[in-house]
C-alpha cells in the first residue's frame, strides 16, 4: 500500500500563518495537520509514502523524517497546474494499491476493508448543503457514473472530500497521463476528477464511501472549527498551572506556562508558550509565544509572537509583536 499526499500549494488562504511554514505543518490540537492525517494510516500496511511538495517543502521532509519510520519519497511540483498534474509528476510511484489524500482533509472513516474491495477505486464522500466549491459524484445503481468539479447548481450534494483509494495505481496513472496529453482542464486546472472520469469512461468500476466526519482546514475559520472538533473528540490535554483555570476541552503542551489566567474552552497552547494575566479561548497559540494581559478569542497566533495589552481577536504570524498603549 502506498499513500500519496499532494501538498505543494502556497496556502494563500491561511496567510500570514503560511509565510514561514507550509499549511500542512500548522498546529491543530497539539499536532500538525499532516501528523493527524498520517496517523490515520498507521493501522494499514503502508510500504511507501509519497509527498508532492513545493513551498517550504524541506520543512515537510524534516517533519516526516523526525516522526515517521515508513519509506518516504519526495516529488517537487514547482508550477501549480492542478491535482492531476501533481500526480503526473509522481507517476513513477503509481502502481499497486494507492491511497491519495489532500491535506485540507481531516476525516473519520473505516479504512480496514480497503484491500478487500472488488471496485477499481473508492472515492470518499460526504453530503453537503452547498456543493458549489467541491467536486461531487453522480451515481447510478451504486456506481459512480460522472464527476462534476465545482458544480453551478445544487442537484448533486455528495462531495468528494479529498480522500481516494485506487486498487491498481497503474490505472490512475494512465488516466492522469491521458488528462495531460489531451489537455483536459476544468476552469484552468488539471483536476483529479477528470482523471477518474477518464477511468469511468473506459469501464472502471468506481464507488463512493461515506465518511463519519470531515473537517476542512483550508481557511482560518475552518481551521479553528477543526481545532474545536478535535478537542471535543479525544485530543484534549491538560497540565498543571499556576493559579489558573483551564476550561475543557483544551490542549496545553507540557512545557507551556500558564499563570493567573483562564484558558479554554477550545484553546490549543503550544510548547514553551507563556500566558499570564490573560483570558484565551477558541484560539490556537503556537510554540514560544508570550501572551500577557490580554483577552483573546477566535484567534490564530504563530510561533514566538509577543502580545501584550487588551485585544479580542487576532490572526498573526511567527515572530510578531503586538501591543496596546505602549505595552511592548
How is this structure best described in words?
The strands form six sheets. This protein has a seven-stranded mixed beta sheet with strand order 5-4-1-6-11-8-12, with helices on both faces. Strands 14, 15, 17, 18, 20, 22 and 24 form a seven-stranded parallel beta sheet that branches. The N and C termini lie far apart (53 Å). The chain is 20% helix and 33% strand. The chain has 328 residues and is α/β, with parallel strands linked by helices. It has two domains: 215 residues, Spore Coat Polysaccharide Biosynthesis Protein SpsA, Chain A, CATH 3.90.550; 87 residues, Hexapeptide repeat proteins (UDP N-Acetylglucosamine Acyltransferase, domain 1, 3 Solenoid).
Q: Number of helix segments?
A: 6
Low-confidence stretches: none
CATH fold name of the largest domain: Spore Coat Polysaccharide Biosynthesis Protein SpsA, Chain A
User: Mind telling me the CATH superfamily name of the largest domain?
Assistant: Spore Coat Polysaccharide Biosynthesis Protein SpsA, Chain A
Provide the CATH architecture of the largest domain.
Alpha-Beta Complex
The proportion of residues forming helix, as a percent range, comes to 10-25%
**Strand order, biggest sheet?**
5-4-1-6-11-8-12
Note the main sheet: 7 strands, mixed
C-alpha-based Rg, rounded = 21 Å
Reading off the top of the CATH hierarchy, the class of the largest domain is best stated as: Alpha Beta
Instruction: For the record, give the distance between the C-alpha atoms at the N and C termini, rounded to a whole number.
Output: 53 Å
Described by the principal axes of the CA atoms, the overall outline is: elongated
Q: What is the percentage of strand-forming residues?
A: 25-35%
**Could you give the count of β-strands?**
25
